[in-house]
Design a protein that fits this description.
With 382 residues, this protein is an alpha/beta fold. The protein is built from eleven helices and 19 strands.
Length: 382
Amino acid sequence: MLSEAPDEQLDYLGKRVVLVAAVAENGVIGNGPDIPWRIPGEQAEFKALTVGHTLLMGRTTFESIGRPLPGRTTIVLTRDPAWSHDGVLVAATIEEALSLAAGLPGNVMVAGGAQVYAAALPYADEQVITRVHLTPEGDVRYPAYDRSEWTETSREEHDHYDRVFLLRAELAAAATQAAYSQFAREFAAATADPSDAVAVAVRRFAELLGARGRVLEIGSGGGRDALALEREGLQVRRTDVSQGFVDLLREQGHAADRLDPLTDDLRDPAGDAPYDGVWAQASLLHVGRDDLPTVLRRLAAATRSGGVLMVSLKEGDGEGWSTHGSIDAPRHFTYWRERALRTVLDEAGWAVTEMGHSTGRGEDWLTALAGRRYADTSGAAR
Ligand SMILES: NC(=O)c1ccc[n+]([C@@H]2O[C@H](COP(=O)([O-])OP(=O)(O)OC[C@H]3O[C@@H](n4cnc5c(N)ncnc54)[C@H](OP(=O)(O)O)[C@@H]3O)[C@@H](O)[C@H]2O)c1
C-alpha cells in the first residue's frame, strides 16, 4: 500500500541537498580513512543514485577515493587554500559549496565523511541511508539527527542492508501539494463524477445546513463537490492548498483561494460572519496525525455554533507514501480509525452525529458528520 516514492519521483521539488551514507547498526561509517566493509551491490547503487548530480565531499574522503568519480561533478570541502586537484572544484565553507552547487548539474549529493555530513545536515532536504547489518569497529560515526523531523518516504530491503529514504517532514507536505499542482488537470478529469457515497453526503450536508448556508470548502481540488453543493443551494468558498487547483478553478471562472488550514487565516473574506459549514472531502487525509487536531480546532473556531462539518479520510492504520488513486505521483497519506477520529473531533469542539464506512476506488473511507458545539471554543486558534 505504501512507500512508492523513490528519489527521482520527488524531482518536481527542485534542487535538493541529499545526504547519501552507508551507516552500520552501531552508527559507524568509517575506520581511520577506510569504510570497514565491502558489500556487493552497494557501490553500484551509490553510482546509480549519484550519476548526473553534484557530489560534495570532505578532503579526507576525497583523498581516500583518490580521484573524481566519473559522470559526476565533484566539490571538495577543505579549509586549506592551497589544496587543489585536477577535475574537482574546491570550497572553503559549506555555504560556499552549496552556492557553488546551485549552478551545477542535478542535486547536491553529500557523500561524507562525518564532518561534512554534520556540516550539511542543517541544509539537508533528504537522507538516503544504507543501513548495513553489521557492527564493525570504527572511529568515525554518522552525526545524530532528530528522527521526528524526518519522514520515511521509502525503504528497500536487501540481504545485507536496507536502504531508507528520509525526507524532511515539512517537505513531505510540500511534495504532496506539488504532486497535485503538477497533475491538477489529470486529477480533475479523473474525479469529475461523484461516487454515490459523495452524492449522498452532499445531500445530507445540505439538508443539515439549510438553503443558502455559507460553506468553507477545504481541498476543492478539481471543483466537483463545490458544484454539487451549489446545486443544493449552498454558497461555497472554494479553497485548496495546491496552487495548481486554485489556478484551475479560476480558469473555470470561480473565485478560489490558496489556503492552508493549518496556518492560514480561515475567516471568510466575503463577510464577518462565521461559516455555517465546512466541507472537507478527501482533503485532510494529507494532514499529519499530529496536525489534524489543530486543523479541526481552527475549523471549529471559524464556524458558527451548530454549524456542520463533513470530513472524509482514508480508513486504516499508520501513514505513508502512495501513488494509488487518481494521479501517478507520490503523495503522503495519514490513515485513521473511527475511535481515534471521534476523539480528535470531539476534543476540537465538534460533536459527531454520524460516522460512515465505505469503499471507493478500492480504498476504505471514513466519513464523519459533526456539529460545532455551542460550548466556548474561543481559546482555539483562528
Ligand atoms: N560509510 C559512508 O557512507 C562513508 C562515506 C564517506 C566517508 N566515509 C568515511 O568517513 C571517514 C572520513 O570522514 P571525516 O569526518 O574524517 O572526514 P571528511 O568529512 O571526509 O573530511 C574532513 C575534511 O574536510 C574538510 N572539511 C570538513 N568540514 C569542513 C567545513 N565545514 N568547512 C571546510 N572544510 C571542511 C577539512 O579538510 P582540511 O583538513 O583539508 O581543511 C576536514 O579535515 C572515512 O573513514 C571514510 O571512509 C564513510
